[in-house]
Write a structure and sequence with these properties.
This protein is of the alpha+beta class and about 300 residues long. The chain is about 30% helix and about 30% strand. The strands form 3 sheets. Strands 1-2-3-4-5-14-6 form a 7-stranded mixed beta sheet, with helices on both faces. It is globular.
């Protein structure tokens, strides 16, 4: 087994069975590389590290360059891990461990003090990451509501005619000014989100003091991000989303106490913890998550990787 970067692979075709077995992801090299080119988190990275046998990838660990905001208000670059996968035929042979160690070595060489990843407490992978030195950073309260509209009561989103990057950034930057964690956005990042998450104007409600980005399907409405500068604006946005929901509304990651109280006041069921978890590993002896970010590390569903 040898380890090479994704960029150095002669052929990417071997990722088809690797990603399909791991994530049921119909991997398309052309689509993936097109997305990576527009992703500011990947542009200067090797994209990932691949374990290779007989010129075919048997394992993968993706790496990202992420930007965080510290307690001091400074910008700190950190590493991000995603897409950890091993072929079933090579499971429990140390492939993922070797790739994770390679990623940590790369982050350390870049001068990063922390490595972050997202997973679920219900997955076996959570225990694997703990053995590698990762710790849970954030618990995400979740909010759920079953709505019942009579026929003809449902409304449509007529708030905006386009996905307005400037309005979203203005609200987000003011809201996150005193936050730590993944609280840094720019227009390039929003463009990447819009393309990668396939966000359309119909999935947004935007005003001068708040916005909501959601996904609506047959199962219900999933609130991806709801940011507002006042409680009244939070109330208004939640109310507008409720008017569009046929059955169920859910927000899986609510790290804003004011928004959580709005949900509670409107009869939402609140779960103190969700399946999702953000984990972090200090990469140097003197690195401390608490000292760098305090007790409240901020992120939303749109920061998931």
């Amino acid at each position: 087994m040898k380890i090479v970067t994704y960029r150095d692979l002669a052929s990417k075709d071997g990722f088809l069975p690797l990603m399909d077995n791991a994530f049921r992801w119909p991997f398309n090299p052309r689509v993936f590389e097109s997305f990576v080119k527009g992703d500011p988190r990947s542009r200067d990275s090797p994209i990932g590290f691949c374990a290779v046998e007989n010129d075919l990838p048997i394992g993968f660990v993706g790496v990202l360059h992420l930007f965080t905001q510290t307690l001091e208000g400074t910008v700190e670059r950190v590493g991000g891990i995603y897409g950890v996968a091993t072929l079933p035929s090579h499971a429990r042979k140390g492939v993922s461990t070797a790739l994770m160690n390679k990623a940590h070595q790369y982050f350390t060489e870049k001068g990063f003090r922390f490595s972050f990843l997202t997973t679920s407490r219900t997955l076996i992978a959570h225990a694997f990451y703990e053995k590698l030195g990762y710790l849970d950073v954030v618990q995400y309260p979740s909010a759920y509501k079953v709505v019942a509209h009579k026929k003809g009561e449902l409304s449509t989103n007529k708030e905006i005619a386009k996905f307005d990057f400037d309005k979203i950034l203005k609200v987000y930057n003011e809201f996150s000014r005193d936050k730590t964690g993944f609280a840094i956005r720019d227009k390039e990042y929003l463009k990447m989100l819009k393309k990668g998450e396939r966000i359309t104007a119909k999935q947004c409600i935007i005003s001068e003091k708040g916005y909501a980005i959601f996904r609506k399907d047959k199962e219900g409405v999933w609130i991806r991000e709801l940011i507002a500068l006042t409680v009244d604006d939070m109330e208004r946005l939640v109310s507008q989303i409720e008017q569009q929901a046929r059955d169920v509304i859910y927000d899986r990651m609510v790290l804003n106490n004011a928004l959580l109280k709005v949900y509670e006041s409107r009869g939402y069921m609140i779960s103190g913890e969700s399946h999702s978890v953000l984990m972090a590993k200090p990469l140097t002896a003197n690195a401390s998550i608490k000292q760098a970010y305090g007790d409240k590390f901020f992120m939303t569903s749109l920061d998931w990787f």
